[in-house]
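[scheduler] slot 2 assigned
[scheduler] job type: sequence-to-structure, two independent chains
[scheduler] chain ordering preserved from manifest
[runner] begin chain α
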Amino acid sequence: METKDFNYKANEVNYKYDSVVQIDETASVRKFMANVFMWMFVALALSSVCAYEFSINQPLKDFLYAPENGLLRLGVMLAPLAFVLAISFGLQKMSYPVLMVLFIAFSAIMGISLSWILLAYTASSVLGVFITASVVFGTMAIAGYTTTKDLTAMGSLLIMALWGIIIASVVNYFIGSSSLSLVISYIGVVVFVGLTAYDVQKLKQLAASEDVDGTLKSKLGLLGALTLYLDFVNLFLMLLRLFGRRR
C-alpha cells in the first residue's frame, strides 16, 4: 500500500545565513562542513535502516500498514514535519544535546515514513535511483562549495519555486492528476539540484563567519545537515517518481 509523500524543507523557516559575504578557506570551514556532511550521512544511514526494517519485518509491516491503522500512518507521515519545525524554531532555546536527539529521532521517523518506497518500487530501481541521486547531489554540492559566484539570487527564486511545488503537490493530492505529478517531479528535480548548490554555499559562508561561534555554530551545523538531508531525500523522491519501476 502506498502512502503519499510530502516535501519537507528547512529553508522554509527562514533561518539566517546572510551575515557573511566573504568565503574563507580555513581549517575551521573545512571542519564545519565535514561535521555537517557527517551528520547528514548518519541521518541517511539511520533512515535507510528504518525504512528497510519496516519493509521486510513482517510484524512491523503489518502493524504500520494494517488497514485499521490509517491514523497511525497519517501520524508517521506528518511527524517529520513536526520535527523539522521543532528543530528550526527551537534552535536558540534548545541545548545542542536536545537538538541532536531530535535530529536522530527525525531521521528514524523519516525512514519509517518512507518505508512504503520499498513496497511500491522494485529494489533494483530504488538502488539505481539512489545512486543517481547521490551522484547528482555530490556534483552540485562540490559546485556549491567551489564556485565563487554568489548564488543568493538563484536561491531566492528556487525557494519561491519550492513553495509552488508544495502548493501544487497539495492540490494534486486531492485531484490525483498523473500529468501534474509528472510536471511537479521534473520541476522538483531542477529545484532540489539548484538548492543543493545554494545551501552548500550558504553553509560555507556561515562557517567563515566570525559572528557565529561555539555552541550556536554546532547547532547551525545540525540544522545545515538537516537542510542537506532534505535536499537529497526530495531529489531522490522526485527522481524515483520519474524513473522508478513499480512492482
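[runner] end chain α
[runner] begin chain β
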Amino acid sequence: MRINSPIDQDIVADLAASFPLPAGNGSDARHAQMARRAEQEDLLDLAYRIVESPIGPLLLAASPAGLVRVAFAREDHDAVLATLAILVSPRILRSGRRTDDVARQLDEYFAGRRHQFQVPLDLQLVRGFRRTVISHLRDIAYGTTASYAAVAQAAGNRAAVRAVGSACSHNPVPVVVPCHRVVRSDGTIGQYLGGTEAKATLLAMESAA
C-alpha cells in the first residue's frame, strides 16, 4: 500500500486490520475507503490533503471542528504532520472529505473570484494574545493592508508590535486568515512564513483584482 506520509503508516495498518477490504482494489481506492470508514467510526482526528497553488503546494489539515492548519512547502509538510501528531493527535490520515470546501474556496481565491473565506476554523494551535491577533486579521479587507502597529492597537495593546509580528509568523492557517496583509509601517511587506516572494505574490494578486 502506498502512503504519502509516514504519519499514515500506523493508523492505516490499524484501520486495515479493523476494516478488511476486498482483494484487488488499488491502493488509492483502499486508502479512500479506509478514510471514509475511519471518519464514520470517529477514528480520524485529522484529515489532510495537499493542493497546488500559485505559491506552491499547500497542506490543508482539518479536525471535525474545522481547519487546523495550512502549511507551505518550505515548512516541510512531513515535519508539519509530525508536529500535528504530537500537538493534536496521531490519528491523521490523507482524506479530502473534510477539506473539500476549503480547497474549492482556495481555487476560487487564486482565480480572483473569492475575496473572503467562509470555512470553520479550529484554532487550537494558538492561544492568548496570538489568538486575539489572529481573530483581528480577518477584518483586514481583501486588497488592503494594515500595519503591525495598527493590528496591535486593534488587538488591545498598541505597544505589542513585535508580538503581532510573532502572532503572524505563527498563524496556523495563513492565506485563509490573511496575515499576508500585515505590513511594516514604512510600507515594506516584512517577513512571511511562506516567504517574502509568496507574500508579494498574494498582495499583488489582490491589488490587481
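[runner] end chain β
[qc] chain β: The first strand starts at residue 46 and ends at 51.
[scheduler] slot 2 released
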